[in-house]
Amino acid sequence: MDTLTPNDMSAIVEADRAHVWHHLLPHKPLETNDPRIIVEGKGMRVWDQRGKEHLDAVSGGVWTVNVGYGRTEIADAVRDQLVKMNYFAQSAGSIPGARFAERLTEKMPGLTRLYYANSGSEANEKAFKMVRQISHRHHGGRKSKILYRDRDYHGTTIACLSAGGQQERNAQYGPYTPGFVEVPHCLEYRKADQGWGDVEDYGRRAADAIEEVILREGPDTVGALCLEPITAGGGVIVPPEGYWARVQEICETYDILLHIDEVVCGVGRTGTWFGYQHYGVKPDFVTMAKGVASGYAAISCCATSERVFEMFKDAPDDPMHYFRDISTFGGCTAGPAAALANMDIIEREDLLANCTAMGDYMLDGLHALADRHRVIGQARGKGLFLGAELVADRDTREPAAEKKVQAVVADCMEQGVIIGATNRSVPGHNNTLCFSPALIAKKDDIDAILSAVDGALGRVFT
Ligand code: PLP
User: Fold this and answer.
1) Ligand 1 atom closest to residue 155's alpha carbon, by position in its atom list
2) Which of 169, 172, 177, 221 sits a CA distance of 20 to 30 A from 157?
3) Residue 26 falls within a domain, yes or no?
4) 108 Cβ closer than 6 Å to some ligand 1 atom
């Protein structure tokens, strides 16, 4: 633990209470409860200001620290890079920037270019801007609309919220940016609410619903479709069989660019480098952030195909022909330096294979819990990206009350295990427990997480 004295620590807690505006937290409880300060981390575990140890089942709270805490080799790589060359605007290149772009694009056949930025939202904004500029340059201003899916999330800026299918995240931040249009979600467990009857081929039906929106809007108005490969904060929604193949077909039929938001799934989370690689799709844009450097540095990327890149260089006599965009801190070399070291670790320790094996083990464990706790309506996920949807009634599938879901999270926290839950996202459906342990997780860690959830469910839903 840190060498701070108890007095130092209470001063820090008071400074935090007085001056820090915490993300995602209501203010009132912090007047009476101490804010939580995370002081140190090692492997799968973190320690708070009281010295309490927590097993982190959500990789830094939001699917981020894929290779675990305390990786000195990433810190060393960042330090070495910073003392040599910390920053220059990305109009010039950098050594780690070039190396990482080359290594990463090798993992994503068909994509060749990397645009560097700092956050998932920003990477998505880059893709949106590219789509808009392609509309102006190649379609006379048509094909500017961007479709997004109910329950998906693409970030926190106003344009990203306008492309966001989680009404509770968006509420009170309007007016929104025009030109974004919603398509239905693809959560088969909730298909009864979608009014399509008891369809057999649900994957195809849910994708056909995208085509219906395209036809309603007019195909020549739609430029791109932006989807999460597996929806994260909207409920850990693994797309149904046949969905992605049909999505690809629809994009090709109507000449619509496919933008896959891999901010959560990217760089190993589901057992492949990218989530879309489970489904054989060929995206035009792939955006990524959280796992790219496991939170050791702020970095996000918008990867594109050469076809997209070419669309910006066909009229050199036009002074507006190129992508006139900059992200100041996209030139920080700490990001790609950390990302390269992060990738070394994933390869050397064979973490994709571990992620697949431990993900299967944990999903089996969640199914076993569902046999004992009727409150688990469905457990789902891929790799170490898992969720358990809680219901008040298994037959009607009425969602469990949000307060009770949060009580399970709080109970686990008491036990020293940090889990997550969908929160303030989809009205009435904030009822999915979320798990995303680091890709280094071992069976013992998974057993400890499952055991904490088992105990919490038993106590909360007596
Ligand atoms: N896209 C997805 C799928 C996300 O889950 C998130 C954040 O959770 C974002 C984009 C936004 O990323 P950031 O918070 O880095 O802007």
Assistant:
1) 11
2) 221
3) no
4) no
